[in-house]
């Protein structure tokens, strides 16, 4: 599987996945808008700070759905789950809007400003 093919699959997955989860669960949209959750370079959603049990359960559920989607796409494409998850993470961070949280490559949480987010140098 070529890197270009992996990127195309992951981009499609990220675009559908992020939008679908945000529309399905108002609690997710509210937590994202409040800066309580954010996108991570590994393709999974993270809790900013400790969060409460309900928020951690929400994030865990979304991440289970993401892993299932990454696994399905990986099996169909010949890529690894980790490759698809990482590429999706790159795309999901790029798709954040100003005011939303994301994790930088050094592990710190940042709030997206008007400019481009800081992403892993391997992101295309």
From TrEMBL:
Signal peptide: 1-22
Region annotation (Disordered) ranges: 97-124
InterPro entries referenced in this protein's UniProt entry, alphabetically: YdbL
Any Pfam family: DUF1318
Keyword tags: Signal
This protein's name: DUF1318 domain-containing protein
Organism: Sphingomonas adhaesiva
